[in-house]
Amino acid sequence: MKEFIKDIAIALVIVIAITLIIKPTIVKESSMEPTLYENNYLFVNKLAYLTKDHPDYGDIIIFKSDIDKDDGSGKKILIKRVIAVENDVVTVSEGNVYRNGIKLDESYTLEGFTSGDIKDYAVPENEVFVMGDNRGVSLDSRSGEVGTISEDSIIGKAFFRLYPFSEIGLLK
């Protein structure tokens, strides 16, 4: 009986540790298509940025926005891709995105075209510039409603898709 109780206690410690590190998340909108689709079930590493200074280019992050939920129950949690980090300069012109004067290869986007016109926007310190992969519908850093994201508001990095099972695996 002691062995059984010991096994249960170890299992509980492992479950608690995992829930402190990993946050399960369900995609609710289409702003990250074709990378992520509505109802994809993801795992988010909540400790991803505790061991390094800043998010990397291309990371898919979830963060708490300043946008109210439709039902008034708090702020929306959004999922977007990191395009630029602090001190980078972002330009959006003629459907292309440039970081520090270099045109980005964004083959992961749905349309291959980015609307908007941003001229030499310098990303503030401890903030990131994010965009959805479905640029036509994404509410992201191009909008004053979202703007750049404080690194303090980042919940974590999406790293694994569990569902649908046909697409199970690490995110790129």
Relative strand content: 35-45%
CATH architecture classification name: Ribbon
DSSP strand count: 12
Q: Give the integer mean of the pLDDT values.
A: 92
Helix content estimate: 10-25%
Q: Could you state the oligomeric state of the chains shown?
A: single chain
- Number of contiguous helices: 1
| Largest sheet data | 8 strands, antiparallel
Membrane topology: Single-pass type II membrane protein
Transmembrane segments: 7-26
Enzyme class: hydrolase
Subcellular location: Cell membrane; Membrane
How do the helices and strands line up, and which of them pair or pack?
Layout: H1 2-21, E1 22-26, E2 41-45, E3 60-68, E4 75-84, E5 89-93, E6 96-99, E7 102-103, E8 118-122, E9 127-131, E10 149-150, E11 154-163, E12 169-170
Antiparallel strand pairs: 1-2, 2-11, 3-4, 3-11, 4-9, 5-6, 5-8, 6-7, 9-10, 11-12
